[in-house]
Each structure stands twice: as structure tokens, then as C-alpha cells.
Amino acid sequence: MSALDFGVHKKCLGNMDPIEKINNEIVSIIGFLDENGQPSLSSDVNRHFTKMLLLSSASYFEHEIRKILIDFIETKSGSCSEIVNLFKRKAIDRNYHTYFDWSYQDKPGRNANTFFSLFGDKFKLSAKKEIDENKDLSRSIEAFIEIGHLRNTLVHNNFAAFEITNKTSFEIFELHQLGKGFVDYIKNKLNNVCVDNDSMKRHENQSGDS
Predict the structure, then answer these.
(1) Mean pLDDT of 131-149
(2) In a domain, 49, yes or no
(3) How many distinct structural domains can be found in the chain?
(4) 20 lies in a domain?
(5) Residue 200: pLDDT over 60
(6) Which of 167, 168, 150 is nearest to 159 (CA)?
(7) What is the DSSP letter of 195?
(8) CA atoms of 183 and 209, how far apart (whole Å)
């Protein structure tokens, strides 16, 4: 399936995230230019759109991860506003980019262990085991980290003049789609932590009452 066909196909689907909507618009514009004999203009537009799509994807991931963490804290604290605000101000706001090792020797980082370790060794080991057993999840993490790595490279190297020469807008979109799997994994993993801990507490309470 070509990039154009893929974009048209996605347009027919509901529940698109904002990045999918942007990608559809990009594909439509580039397709229009190509069909009307404007290959040079199409190339220029694609080059600028690639940077926009990259920053949009990175921003989307940051928003989703922060929301997942805030929801997690609200659940664990019983929606205690004081605890939620404390974590938002000291552990979440403006701290997202410290959660991951985005780069390793000028290349994308290798894993999300820095993030997993924030929840303790037990959580980290559990996540590592699940990742080792799931190649799709491992690839999703790699894509997520690569988006963050490319974002940092772009914003710290004269955004207007810097060129992303090793990725097209379609390849950035593919990374975004893969990276969403990691976001979903984190959400489910933390939800399960809440469920498992609540079940353990109920079991302990029942044992104490018997």
C-alpha cells in the first residue's frame, strides 16, 4: 500500500487521533501536488511537514503519558487533590523528558528501563520480562524512543534550518503508530497495578477478620 493509499484508507476509519488526522491532511496535499505535476514543491512541502508531524507526535506522546500518570496517582490516592497536585508539580510537570534515556551515543535510546525504574525494581523486572517475551512491544518502545530522540535532535539544532534527512513524513507516521502500542501498554500496566494491589488489600482484610 502506498503512502497515499494508506492515508486514504485511514481517513475512512473512525476514532482517529490528532496525528492521524494531520497525516491524512499531509498525504492529501502531497498527493494533490504530485498529481498536478509539482514534484519539487511536493518535496519541499513534505520536508517541512515531516518536522511538523514529528513534533506533533512527540507532543502527543508527552500529553498521553502525563495523563496516564495523573490518572494513576488519582486512583492510588483516592482522588486526593493535595497528593495529585504534589505529584503534578514535583514529579510530572516539566519532568517528562527526564523519564526516558532518549539517546545513546547520539542514537535513539535502547529501552524504557529508566521509566520503569521510577516505579521500583519489582515493576521494572516485571515489565522487562513482558518486553523480552513480546517482540511487538519491544519494537513499539523503540519507535516511541526514536520519536523522542528525533524531537530532541530537531529542537536543539536550529529548528528552522535543520533537515531530517533520514526520515520521510510517512516513516515518522509509521513510528507514531508503532509507538502508540507502548503508551497503551503503560496505561494497562498501571491499571493492573491498581487492581492487583486492591485485590491484595481485600484479601488481607478478609484474613484479618477471620
Answers:
(1) 96
(2) no
(3) 1
(4) no
(5) no
(6) 150
(7) H
(8) 40
Residue 99 pLDDT level (bands cut at 50, 70, 90): very high
Place of cell 530522540: 149
Q: For residue 144, what are the contacts with CB-CB under 8 A and spacing of at least 6?
A: 61, 112, 178, 179, 182, 183
**Residue in the structure block whose three cell numbers are 524504557:** 112
Spatial contact of 113 and 128, defined as CB atoms under 8 Å apart: yes
C-alpha cell at 118: 521510577
Beta-bridge mates of residue 103: 108
> For the residues of 6-35, what is the DSSP string, one character each?
HHHHHHTSSS--HHHHHHHHHHHHHHHHHH
Q: pTM of the full predicted structure?
A: 0.83
Residue count (the chain) = 210
Answer whether residue 22 is part of any domain: no
* CA-CA-CA-CA torsion sign (81, 57, 179, 111): negative
Residue 129 identity (one-letter amino acid): K
Grade residue 158 by pLDDT with cuts at 50, 70 and 90.
confident
Question: Residue 88 sits in which domain range?
Answer: 58-209
Judge whether 23 lies within some domain.
no
